[in-house]
Design brief:
The complex is a heterodimer. Chain A is 39% helix and 17% strand. Chain A is built from 13 helices and 17 strands. In chain A, strands 10-7-13-12-14-15 form a 6-stranded mixed β-sheet, sandwiched between helices. In chain A, helix 2 packs across helix 4 and helix 3 (102-109) packs across helix 4. Classes of the chains: A alpha/beta, B alpha+beta.
Chain lengths: 381, 570
């Protein structure tokens, strides 16, 4: 049976650390200028060519390529200025204990530079990358800098959370559970009475499980990602696993998109490679949907056809087929179990949704499918 | 000792495909990155050539799709004239059968192996046929899958579908599936190759879709379609025995004399009379026993004293001349190897008018400037196209150089090498262009540190016969005349750069830069003050003095350089 494990990480959010790092950054720049040197920032390069898979930690990580941003270089000067503006803004936010959305951060820092017709920021597409640069430069999460992402996803189950001055149990907030905020750095877990967390791709499925009282019966925490997991949800999953020792089980549709959601939760993503150590949970396991489920539970007539052209047809592979083949090449899917599943999907040319289980009965998923598979540990790595 | 029977047990007649596989390097198929670039190169070259010959402004789209590990689909589509149905197998399927193979003409392509080589490469790495979709703009679009029958060296259409051409589309799209290749954004990869191609072909609109879906556009910056090159007859100084021997077997003329006059440039009736005398003289000199006398006579022959030498032999000379005259009247296919050798040797001693150069097609100064400006967005750009010259005594060539400086260029030296407008991506070290560029004393032209200068140099060597160092055709041999021409062209462009750098443009630019930096100071000071707690005004002062210091030294350097110039002139 699944049970909570010993915690591996401690609650780590420390606003003082963020403030210290920002001040250090400012002091270094100032010191350079005082000595008559051309001040600069070293920013880890973004993009695919600075990303690799760490076989030991089993997460996607950022390489050590740096790009240097000088003040005295005309091509860099504007970005140099913008970086400092955002850094100063973050310092104020954190020291005042306030949060701002990315859009608010953009508007708060946008103004016309005196004596010119130029704005400090012309567009949010200028401020967002600067924020990402700061994250990578300082090794500090955007959330820790009090800059919040979109909120998406919710949580239901017998755990008690402290969020600022509020303390609540997420199974006592109605059937909709507790909506995960953009940043979860500051929340604390007061009491946890569940054995594991079940991460569910679709809201419809999460609602179904809540209605069937699955969380209570199985001592599970339901985390609905509502599609690709947001940063907040991924960080929450990471913290629940490492700080609270909760095993993580992922439940998605049996299709390339669902498997990709799982992959992101587990190993991180290329875009946010520099955050993998804080967002990824390599120990997560996958409960379904798998291709084997189709045979085992007789779901043949509720599958859907894969989209696109298969690899052996002309013009192929495209669409779903192409993505499955890409996933087969991910290092973390290079094991017998996953290769077999993905190969089956290609062979049969089908996908299967979580909701297809309703074909058996509404209770089937909560009373039979999940409890059986989890109890027998029929999970994919 | 091994018996012949055993030795030959393993002996098999090599098929074209076998030869190709073993000698793929000759055609540019070595290495995973280069092979991919070569396939794209062959297809793009075909597209550009076809458009030019048809007088169409080219629109070429390249798409690289990753199908798996080291497994790609390469799609190249153009708006060219299209290929008539019956020529499809010929264009894509036959090796060594191209239209340019045996003509003396400046061309982008290799000798007719180009695209069929790519089809073959696709076939031997992925096993797939090449898909060709083409229309000449008529009622139908032809979709054909082409393979090469390696035994017969023939193209074979394995499947064909005809579609109605309702939109009046015209052009060619080919899709090749290749394995054992790799897409990398390096200086040997497709991206860099297309960028260089776009610079040298400003009349072409080129697009690239990279495997991750990123679209890159190299827009057209000139509306002028270059004239297609014209064929040139070889110049007597530029041929070898084998050329003469081979051409003689194929000619339609009925005497050696007619053959020489009609198929070489700069050979007239009068020149034939001279040739006869020279061959006779060579034969007579070769009959001398004493090596010293022999050498001396050859030396005199080189000075043009052919009549004096013939006189020395009196009646014997008359007899030999007669023999050579007979040789000139015999059917060319009867010309022996030895006789061809004599003709070529005589050519060496004779004087000819310089070869015609109307077949050379430079990019042109104006278009080089457009190409460099459009793609690189530099602050300064100039181009030099030198007049045609000859090397090895008779092979015409021409050198062009483009120079771009500053602006959006990175602070590093970049050399863009071309032969007949085709980018050369490999073996840069061995190339005469690299040697010539490095040999220039850049400091004299105000480029203090070449490797850190925001400077891009384009060099294009044009010739009907570019002297490559190897079969890979990626570097140009160090021929003295070519080396010297490149140096002259670079120095001329560099002089213009020098004028610019020391001129008022530079000053204006510096003022602009200074202002740009200054305007950010208040913003930076406020932010840094928040971060560090130091007073804003103090921080402002630090930054302002930093900027002043930087531009002081620049000003000083400018002043000094002006003084040096004045000294040099005085």
């Amino acid at each position: 049976m699944l049970k909570r494990e010993k915690p591996k990480e401690r609650f780590g959010y420390d606003p003082q650390k963020v403030l210290r790092k920002l001040e250090e950054l400012g002091k270094e720049i100032l010191e350079e200028v005082k000595q008559g040197k051309n001040p600069y920032f070293d920013i880890p390069t973004r993009g695919l060519n600075n990303v690799y898979f760490d076989e030991v930690k089993r997460v996607i990580r950022m390489g050590d390529k740096l790009s240097r941003r000088y003040f005295l270089n005309v091509a860099h000067a504007r970005k140099f200025m913008q970086t400092l503006l955002i850094a100063a803004y973050v310092k104020r936010l954190v020291s005042e204990g306030k949060h701002a959305s990315l859009r608010e951060a953009y508007y708060a820092n946008k103004h016309t530079i005196p004596g010119t017709k130029e704005n400090t920021f012309e567009d949010q597409s200028e401020s967002d990358p600067v924020i990402e640069d700061l994250e990578r430069m300082l090794g500090v999460l955007r959330e820790e800098m009090h800059l919040t992402a979109d909120r998406r996803g919710y949580v239901y189950g017998d755990i008690t959370i402290r969020d600022g001055e509020d303390e609540f149990n997420t199974s006592k907030l109605g059937m909709g559970g507790w909506a995960v905020p953009g940043t979860v750095e500051h929340i604390q877990f007061v009491d946890i009475n569940v054995d594991y967390a079940l991460v569910v791709e679709t809201a419809a499925m999460a609602d179904r499980l809540i209605e069937e009282k699955f969380p209570k019966r199985e001592r599970a925490l339901i985390i609905a990602t509502q599609g690709q997991a947001s940063r907040g949800v991924r960080r929450l999953i990471h913290r629940l696993h490492y700080e609270e020792g909760l095993p993580i089980i992922v439940f998605t549709d049996g299709d390339p998109y669902g498997w990709y959601i799982y992959s992101t939760i587990k190993q991180g993503s290329i875009n946010l490679a520099y955050l993998s150590e804080k967002l990824a949970t390599p120990e997560a396991k996958f409960v379904g949907m798998t291709m084997d489920d189709i045979k085992k539970y007789g779901l043949e007539n509720v599958t859907e056809k894969l989209k696109g052209i298969p690899p052996n047809k002309k013009g192929g592979p495209t669409g779903d087929y192409k993505r499955i083949i890409e996933e087969m090449n991910y290092p973390w899917f290079k094991n017998k179990e996953w290769q077999r599943q993905l190969k089956l999907a290609l062979e049969w040319g089908v996908r299967i949704e979580q909701q297809a289980l309703a074909n058996k009965s509404l209770e089937f998923v909560a009373k039979k499918y999940l409890p059986e598979k989890i109890a027998n540990e029929e999970l994919l790595p | 000792m091994a018996k012949a029977k055993e030795l030959f047990k393993e002996f098999k007649i090599q098929s074209v495909s076998e030869f190709f596989r073993r000698n793929a390097a000759m055609l540019g198929y070595t290495g995973k990155i280069r092979s991919l670039t070569t396939v794209v190169h062959e297809a793009v070259t075909n597209s550009l050539d076809a458009c030019e010959e048809a007088g169409i402004l080219p629109y070429v789209r390249v798409e690289i799709e990753e199908l798996g590990r080291e497994h790609y689909k390469i799609i190249v589509e153009d708006n060219g004239p299209g290929i008539p149905e019956k020529f499809i197998t010929h264009v894509f399927g036959k090796m060594l059968a191209g239209t340019k193979a045996h003509r003396n003409i400046q061309s982008r392509g290799q000798q007719g192996i180009g695209i069929s080589g790519a089809v073959m490469f696709a076939q031997i790495t992925s096993g797939k046929a090449t898909r060709v979709i083409t229309s000449t703009g008529g009622d139908e679009i032809i979709e054909a899958w082409v393979k090469i029958d390696v035994e017969k060296n023939e193209g074979k259409i394995v499947k064909k579908i005809k579609h109605k051409n309702t939109t009046g589309w015209r052009g060619t799209r080919i899709e090749l599936e290749v394995k054992n290749v790799k897409y990398v954004r390096s200086k040997q990869g497709v991206f860099w190759y297309l960028k260089l191609t776009a610079i040298a072909n400003p009349h072409a609109h080129i697009e690239l879709i990279e495997p991750d879906g990123k679209l890159i556009v190299f827009p057209r910056s000139s509306e002028e379609i270059p004239k297609p090159p014209v064929e040139m007859k070889p110049h007597p100084k530029g041929v070898m025995t084998d050329d003469v021997y081979r051409m003689a077997k194929k000619t339609r003329k009925n005497t050696v004399k007619r053959f020489l006059i009609s198929e070489f440039s700069r050979i007239s009736d009068k020149k034939i009379d001279e040739l006869i005398k020279y061959i006779a003289a060579i034969r007579l000199i070769n009959s001398e026993e004493d090596k010293k006398i022999k050498d001396e006579l050859f030396e005199r022959l080189a000075k043009g004293e052919v009549d004096l030498i013939l006189r020395r032999y009196g009646r014997r000379a008359k007899k030999v001349i007669k023999e050579v005259q007979n040789l000139m009247e015999k059917p060319p296919e009867k010309l022996s190897w030895h006789e061809a050798e004599e003709i070529v040797e005589a050519f060496k001693y004779m004087k000819f008018l310089a070869p015609p150069t109307h077949g050379l097609r430079p990019i042109g100064e104006e278009n080089i400037v457009k190409g460099l400006t459009g793609i690189l967005k530099p602050e300064f750009v100039t181009a030099v196209t030198r007049p045609p010259k000859v090397y090895r005594g008779g092979i015409p060539f021409q050198v062009e150089v483009g120079l771009a400086y500053g602006g959006e260029l990175e602070s590093s030296f970049n050399l863009l090498r071309y032969a007949n407008r085709v980018p050369l991506l490999f073996d840069a070290g061995a190339c005469v262009t690299t040697m010539a560029a490095r040999s220039v004393d850049w400091k004299r032209y105000k480029v203090e540190d070449l490797d850190r200068a925001p400077l891009t140099l384009l060099i294009n060597v044009i010739s009907v016969h570019v002297p490559y160092t190897s079969t890979g055709k990626q570097s140009i041999a160090n021929e003295d005349e070519i080396y010297e021409e490149i140096r002259l062209a670079i120095m001329e462009a560099a002089r213009r750069l020098q004028t610019y750098l020391s001129g008022k443009h530079r000053r204006l630019y510096q003022v602009k830069r200074k202002k740009t930096l200054q305007k950010y100071v208040p913003e930076i000071a406020r932010a840094l003050s928040i971060l560090t707690g130091e007073p804003e005004e103090k921080i402002k002062e630090y930054f302002i003095s930093l900027i002043e210091k930087k531009f002081e030294s620049v000003e000083e350097a400018l002043e000094q350089s002006v003084e040096v110039e004045a000294d040099a002139e005085a």
